[in-house]
């Protein structure tokens, strides 16, 4: 089959007009979805509105794949010690929002009329192979989570 890669900004509903009449087997968002929960610039789309718009671009069996920093790990410190430790003081009630919680992702998917087909927690292979303080943490905590979402 043919693979076509495209990059586009989706900040408002008008941005989807470019794709009218087209349908895709898969849409992949990497290090993107989290910014619809806590935007670094003004955007007119909520996370569920984004998914709803993307869902409209999928073929009947199409999927949206999302790979973002893990929600409970993004704010954790990397301490410069041989055996680092983590203290999690924020997850649900955050002062510094970076990533959504699993429930927030799930609610956005449901509001878009879609379902989560798979969730995976991903480890960074490069960190796993190193022998340093980052590897000690990376061996215990996933740095990324991966969602497969369908209609």
The main pleated sheet reads as: 4 strands, mixed
| Helical content (DSSP H or I, runs of 4+) | 10-25%
How would you write the strand order of the largest sheet? 1-2-4-3
Shape: globular
User: Low-confidence parts, pLDDT < 50 over ≥5 residues?
Assistant: none
Mean pLDDT: 82
How would you portray this structure in words?
There is one protein chain. This protein has helices at 47-55, 102-111, 125-129, 133-138, and strands spanning 24-30, 58-69, 115-122, 144-150. By secondary structure, it is α+β, with helices and mostly antiparallel strands. The model has no long low-confidence stretch (mean pLDDT 82). 20% of the residues lie in helices and 23% in strands. It has a four-stranded mixed sheet, with helices on one face. Helix 1 links the parallel strand 1 (24-30) and strand 2 (58-69). The longest helix is centred in the C-terminal third of the chain and has 10 residues, at 102-111.
């Amino acid at each position: 089959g043919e693979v076509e890669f495209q990059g586009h900004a989706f900040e408002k509903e008008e941005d989807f007009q470019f794709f009218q009449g087209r349908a895709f087997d898969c849409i992949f968002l990497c290090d993107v979805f989290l910014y619809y929960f806590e935007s670094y610039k003004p955007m007119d789309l909520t996370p569920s509105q984004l998914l709803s718009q993307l869902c409209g671009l999928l073929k009947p069996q199409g999927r949206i794949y999302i790979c973002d920093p893990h929600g409970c790990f993004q704010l954790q410190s990397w301490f410069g010690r041989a055996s680092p430790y983590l203290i999690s003081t924020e997850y649900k009630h955050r002062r510094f929002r970076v990533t959504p919680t699993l429930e927030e992702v799930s609610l956005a998917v449901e509001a878009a009329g879609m379902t989560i087909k798979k969730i995976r927690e991903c480890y960074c292979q490069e960190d796993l192979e190193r022998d340093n303080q980052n590897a000690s943490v990376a061996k215990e905590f996933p740095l990324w989570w991966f969602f497969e979402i369908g209609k």
